[in-house]
Design goal:
363 residues; mainly alpha; 18 helices; globular
């Protein structure tokens, strides 16, 4: 099969996969009212999704070593789509949490395998292709958040089911892209992937917390739901341009320094968000979306140098999630006592872990 066809299908699947990460974010204030759940507990929804995704990252890499990257990725997207169809049928907050946990497992099966398919198809342009892969995440995430606008007309249950249904046929296409097994199913872990995963987990967690919980934060401060959803989608759509700038990574030699500079530029402006100034939020969100996507692309490119890129990328992503997911819980817990503290903590934690990157081999 032509590698261009594989790339197009994987990028399309990545967009849909990404929408499934965030399309419940605008519905959280509604879910809080319907199921009579405290706003302090809403952080459990993005948190439990990451628990599922983080816990299954490395098993996903091992599974892919035996059944192939395409089959593993297709299965993952199918799980996310099916759980999305079932979520609107939930009768309690706990059922929503269980389904999001399972959806997280599906996300784990897709991420590293989809990226590995691109990096092996285009070994001479890894930075560029992984940049497009990450740009697709930003586009899909923005679509997922903007989808919240339809909740005002159709209700969150019907809207969620409609978007979930799209993933089923696409998952089947991914599954049958290519069969067989990896030529050398060796299970060896990358030291650099471990270091990079820990060092970038704060920035990853800050981005995920902001993308998932800014609508809830903004509504609690008095902004309309549709306005807060669109503001957050601006942050995620801006990440598309960060991913599309992946060509820079193929040119710049010192990718570690690039990650550090991008993290500083992307997190410090978050301190402006509590002002609720529309221009400040757009600027801060736009900078975070662009820099986060480009920084993570650089991190993925460094990890993909390993002999088993799927397992290496899974290791990096697992550590991002295991450490970074706690920021979502920390965000909602501190949000109820302070308007500024959640953003301050995200900046501090993002920057505090960066010195570990000195341990990474730069060549």
């Amino acid at each position: 099969m032509r590698r261009s066809v594989i790339a197009i299908v994987i990028i399309l699947a990545r967009i849909v996969y990404s929408a499934y990460w965030f399309y419940l974010a605008p519905a959280l204030p509604i879910i809080s009212v319907e199921f009579r759940v405290s706003k302090a507990l809403l952080g459990l929804v993005p948190f439990i999704f990451i628990v599922g995704a983080a816990s299954f990252q490395i098993p996903a890499g091992i599974i892919a070593s035996h059944i192939g990257n395409a089959r593993t990725a297709g299965l993952g997207l199918l799980i996310m789509a099916v759980t999305g169809l079932l979520t609107p049928l939930s009768t309690s907050f706990y059922e929503v949490l269980i389904l999001r946990l399972i959806a997280g497992v599906g996300a784990a099966l897709f991420f590293s395998t989809g990226a590995a398919m691109l990096s092996t198809a285009y070994p001479e342009r890894v930075g560029t292709l992984l940049g497009i892969y990450n740009a697709a995440f930003g586009l899909g995430s923005g679509v997922g958040l903007a989808w919240g606008v339809t909740y005002a007309f159709l209700g969150w249950r019907i809207s969620t089911m409609l978007l979930s249904a799209v993933g089923i046929p696409l998952a089947l296409v991914v599954f049958f892209l290519q069969g067989g097994y990896m030529r050398v199913p060796r299970i060896r872990f990358s030291r650099d992937a471990v270091v990079i995963g820990i060092a970038t987990s704060g920035f990853w967690g800050a981005y995920y917390a902001a993308g998932s919980l800014l609508p809830t934060y903004a509504v609690s401060r008095g902004l309309p739901l549709y306005t807060s959803s669109l503001l957050t989608s601006i942050m995620l759509f801006s990440s598309v341009f960060g991913g599309l700038s992946g060509r820079v990574i193929d040119i710049i030699r010192n990718r570690v320094l690039l990650i550090v500079v991008l993290t500083v530029i992307g997190t410090v402006p978050l301190l402006l968000v509590p002002t609720l100034n529309m221009a400040a939020i757009i600027i801060a969100g736009g900078l975070m979306g662009f820099t986060n996507e480009l920084a993570l692309t650089a991190a993925y490119t460094l990890a993909a140098r390993h002999e088993n890129p799927a397992l290496s990328l899974a290791t990096l992503n697992a550590l991002n999630m295991v450490i970074g997911m706690w920021l979502s819980v920390l965000f909602t817990e501190t949000m109820v006592i302070s308007n500024t503290l959640p953003w301050v903590l995200m900046v501090i934690i993002s920057l505090a872990l960066l010195p570990l990157l000195r341990l990474v081999k730069t060549t």
